[in-house]
Amino acid sequence: xxxxxxxxGSVGLITLQSPPVNALSAAVRxxxxxxxxxxxxxxxxxxxxxxxxxxxxxxGADIKEFGGQMSGxxxxxMIHAIEAASKPVVAAIExxxxxxxxxxxxxxxxxxxxxxxxxxLPEVTLGLLPGAGGSQRLPRLIGVPxxxxxxxxxxxxxxxxxxxxxxxxxxxxxxxxxxxxxxxxRVADQPxxxxxxxxxxxxxxxxxxxxFEEVMQxxxxxxxxxxxxxxxxxxxxxxxxxxxNQGMERERELxxxxxxxxxxxxxxxxFFAQRAVGRWSMPSGAxxxxxxxxxxxxxxxxxxxxxxxxxTVALAQAGFSVVAVETQEKQLMEAKQAIxxxxxxxxxxxxxxxxxxxxxxGRNIQSVADVDxxxxxxxxxxxxxxxxxxxxxxxxxxxxxxxxxxxGLDIDxxxxxxxxxxxxxxxxxxxxxxVMKLLEVVYGPKSSPxxxxxxxxxxxKIGKVSVAVGNCRGFVGNRMLKPYLEQALFxxxxxxxxxxxxxxxxxxxxxxxxxxxxxxxxxxVGWKVRxxxxxxxxxxxxxxxxxxxxxxxxxxxxxxxCEQGRFGQKTGRGWYQYDKPGSxxxxxxxxxHSFLDEYRARHALVAHRIDHQEVLERCLYSMINEGFxxxxxxxxxxxxxxxxxxxxxxxxxRHRGGPMFYAATVGLNKVLERLEHYYQAHPDVPxxxxxxxxxxxxxxxxxxxxxxxxVIKKVRSQL
Length: 719
Ligand SMILES: CCC/C=C/C(=O)SCCNC(=O)CCNC(=O)[C@H](O)C(C)(C)COP(=O)([O-])OP(=O)([O-])OC[C@H]1O[C@@H](n2cnc3c(N)ncnc32)[C@H](O)[C@@H]1OP(=O)([O-])[O-]
Hints:
Elements: E1 2-7, E2 11-16, H1 26-41, E3 47-52, H2 75-84, E4 89-93, E5 96-98, H3 100-107, E6 110-114, E7 118-120, H4 134-142, H5 144-153, E8 157-158, H6 159-165, E9 170-172, H7 176-186, H8 208-223, H9 228-241, H10 244-259, H11 262-276, E10 298-302, H12 306-317, E11 321-325, H13 329-350, E12 359-362, E13 373-376, H14 382-395, E14 401-404, H15 411-415, E15 424-429, E16 438-443, H16 449-461, E17 465-470, H17 477-494, H18 498-508, H19 514-521, H20 523-532, E18 548-549, E19 552-553, H21 557-563, H22 590-602, H23 612-632, H24 639-650, H25 659-666, H26 668-681, H27 692-699, H28 708-718
Parallel strand pairs: 2-3, 3-4, 4-6, 5-7, 6-9, 10-11, 10-13, 11-12, 13-14, 14-15, 16-17
Antiparallel strand pairs: 1-2, 7-8, 15-16, 18-19
This protein binds (2E)-Hexenoyl-CoA (TC6).
(2E)-Hexenoyl-CoA is lined by residues 20-21, 23, 59-64, 75, 96, 98-100, 122-123, 126, 128, 130-132, 275.
């Protein structure tokens, strides 16, 4: 909807009204078309201002409409009509002008923005391009290099940056609509020809062909298979090389291909999934909208290794007072230096002062006595963590929330060490903790909704996407990673090489294949866990065959490398070889290939040819199967939670929506059928056995992913 008022006698004010972000729904578009006609037909009206209600100009096209039949007046002719209007039209931009919202503003003759407004063309993040003339008008207004940057990244820019680009004509700290109305009065009689951006020549640098070549190469390298960024470059190239009308035609063709693509569907699903995880619920029935968080003013971090340092930086940067505790003097000194460096570099990038004074360092756990919330980040060792929780419980105020940054240990066992187990939750950060967006907030059986709500809100305040998950070994992310890693090792035993497995996974869109990734994070990390679990190094006197442990198939390949001191990048050797310890350039290692040959010979394994499809299906479907088990067990509330965890925490390609969305795209019956096939071939690998929920969903006719929760509820109630 849109509302019309006449202000100051001669200005027609059109206000977009479609909460929460004034998206350009069919009703809003119809409103704009009708009200523009009205303003142009009223002789008293000399100029027009377009604004949005509640301090928000416009969040762009209504993404909810994309999935269905589009109705109402289309955007392109609507914007053309505004640009062609005989009276000046001024956009009053408050809050945001994004996507179609900015394209609407580009159709206006003038743009006035509030100093706190942000503008951008984020269509690429939804698998689209600025297809309402944005790809053609923006380079004409701000030049090809800046337009390429904004359109291919989708980044939001501040009003100040927009003014520098010439994207807006004026910024103000005052009431934007009032300023725009006065401005509209001033320009009422001015000629409009030069203000119609579509008539401008495109501003190209002299070496424009080289620029496009370079940008295209960079975009192809970083897109990881996403098609929209490439189409964005092609559309801007059309603006630079073709007359406006032909450029618009090219924009339309490119948009048509993107609009119906699976990638656009996946990215739009993901947009809503990100928002859905904020509406968390627990099996007890506690929910985001009925559980109030308690404010946190002062927090503490215990243990300043890699994770503790990152968490301290994240908290300080967000303005929290932090007590950072490390009991070892040397470690404390090193941590202090590292944290200051991280804060200074971050502050320089963002053009602000480093938040060094937010942190108080200490060696004594007593120094956390008055904090509101503690995040323990000591070594991943249950005995040590239990001790820390006992100490914290004795030292802290009774109301202090006690959180653990464990990546998979039992939260309940930690809660049991404290006086107030209901205030204990897991806060599982991902390395580097001040950069990675994901936070798993883990509730145990005793965790209160208050503690979950508080941890979720804290996560949001420090810029994380927080997902509430239940308590089980590895929680959601690492639990699903286990069968994926396991399959990758089995594939090596059966004849694949690390290079081939990684190549297939990287072609799929992962930033790094599984072996390059484990070389980066260190093979010794998992080895220590397997040793603690009694999985690595079985006692040979027990007569256990090496490739069978605890009743199931086991690959000791990773353990064997660790026994040789091959821990990955940090030792210069792992699944690959590196020029020197710490180097990041992975090269195939002939030693490893002979080692695999010898290993196979020792275990009478005959290497067979493993193809692309088998690598993908076994690695991904076993992981997806575990995802269905997680849903069945109630550890994640819905498929969106799993998908958000995988995209933000495990570099799952966003344009594939996440593992559960991918399963829906492939077809649940196909996933089931292939799992059955592989389970038959490997009956000693339980993770390949299709789980009950997957079978149930297929039996229910493979409903769309948005309907899975209904089936999940039924399955859970039958258990
Ligand atoms: C076709 C021609 C070419 C044009 C293409 C386009 O314009 S493509 C579009 C280009 N535009 C974009 O890509 C902008 C996408 N939006 C954003 O980036 C952010 O929402 C924000 C920065 C506008 C506000 O951030 P924030 O943290 O303050 O708030 P929040 O994020 O929690 O959202 C609040 C609620 O609004 C909802 N909603 C939001 N936008 C839209 C929409 N366009 N549509 C529908 N709904 C939308 C959102 O789902 C949520 O609903 P819920 O869960 O409460 O039911």
